[in-house]
Write a structure and sequence with these properties.
OB fold (Dihydrolipoamide Acetyltransferase, E2P), ABC_transporter-like_ATP-bd, nucleotide-binding, membrane, 4-stranded antiparallel β-sheet, alpha+beta
């Protein structure tokens, strides 16, 4: 296990990058604490896999350093980093049995045969493949092969870090949940540093102690699931986390008031006078419908009943505003105003969150 430090790190696939846009991974400084479970979350092409491959040594960064427990490993080969990595698509030895595939990393390091047997049995139980240990990998389904690949990544207990690059893509939904639960159990039992790449917010939020959200080649926020939900530091985090994502509305903010489409609303706290592209961000969970004269006048477009609650899609001067309403709550025709719980209001300037002023 190791603390992993990224120092002034950036990477470009171009031989001579000039501008910031030439970098697939823009400059970042980040510490991954020893023994914590992280998720790298973001849309395809945002730099997640590039960052993971730099950590594992499959890529050397264009600039900056990577340190394990403060030791510079920037140019160290993968073999010296003591990393286990599981890729998006299964990598197995077809001519070997499932047992031999799982045992391979341990045999390669000269582990005691009795320990290998015990450990392989433990991992086989974890991935649900005890009954197929003596079968050749050839001919197994893609999800079975990926479980072997996952098990082989987890079989060693002495690694500095376990890296997972969207490992559950080819796994059926029910097994995804089980394997994710097993990964969390493994983390709690052995305390490995784990970094899990995914574009699925459910996977990220249920797996990780902290989620690292990436957008356009940069880290825009690292925090707990609660922090990402309540105080998104970037509009992308607000949009990407949650279902539906955060409502974003152009606003003119002055102090503790905002004007949206000519309508003034109270913010509950002061934000000064932010400049640039100013937006108000409020999650649907902090948004409610009511009748009366206060709030933003809206038109209800449709109501989606998703079982646990209702999602009310409304229109305010061409901007969609979503509301989460209780499952048993009544939505009447005269409920044509939206109000915000000021505890859930965030203000953004050029996509970055503006901290409220302390009184």
């Amino acid at each position: 296990m190791a603390k992993i430090t990224l120092d002034n790190l950036a990477h470009s696939y171009l031989p001579k990058p000039v501008t910031e846009d030439d970098f697939a991974l823009k400059e970042l400084n980040l510490d991954w604490s020893d023994g914590e479970a992280y998720a790298l979350l973001g849309a395809s092409g945002c730099g997640k896999s590039t960052l993971l491959n730099i950590i594992s040594g499959l890529l050397h960064p264009s600039q900056g350093r990577i340190l394990f427990d403060d030791k510079d490993m920037t140019m160290a080969p993968t073999t010296q980093r003591n990393i286990a990595q599981v890729f998006q698509f299964p990598v197995v030895y077809d001519t070997m049995t499932v047992r031999d595939n799982l045992a391979f990393p341990l045999r390669n390091r000269g582990a005691d045969p009795a320990y290998i047997q015990t450990r392989v049995q433990q991992i086989a139980a974890m991935i649900g493949m005890e009954d197929t240990l003596n079968r050749k990998a050839r001919g197994l389904t893609a999800d079975a092969k990926q479980k072997i690949s996952l098990g082989r990544g987890m079989v060693r207990e002495d690694v500095n870090a376990l890296l997972f690059d969207e490992p559950l893509t080819v796994i059926d939904p029910h097994m995804k949940w089980e394997l994710r639960t097993q990964l969390k159990s493994l983390h709690h039992e052995f305390g490995h540093t784990m970094i899990y790449v995914t574009h699925d917010q459910t996977e990220a939020l249920t797996f990780a102690d902290k989620v690292v959200v990436m957008y356009d080649g940069r880290v825009v926020q690292m925090g707990t699931p609660q922090e990402l939900f309540e105080t998104p530091e970037h509009t992308f985090v607000g949009y990407f986390i949650g279902s539906p994502g955060m409502n974003l509305m152009d606003a003119d903010v002055k102090g503790d008031k905002a004007v949206i489409g000519g309508v003034e609303i109270a913010l509950g706290k002061g934000f000064g006078t932010p400049t640039g592209k100013v937006e108000l961000g409020v999650r649907p969970e902090f948004t409610s419908l009511q009748a009366g004269d206060s709030g933003l006048p809206v038109t209800i477009k449709r109501v989606e009943d998703v079982g646990r609650h209702k999602i009310v899609r409304t229109d305010f001067q061409g901007t969609e505003i979503n509301v989460i309403a209780p499952e048993g709550g009544e939505i009447s025709p005269d409920m044509n105003r939206i109000v915000f719980d000021t505890a859930g209001v965030n203000v953004y300037s050029d996509s970055w969150r503006v901290a409220p002023k302390v009184a």
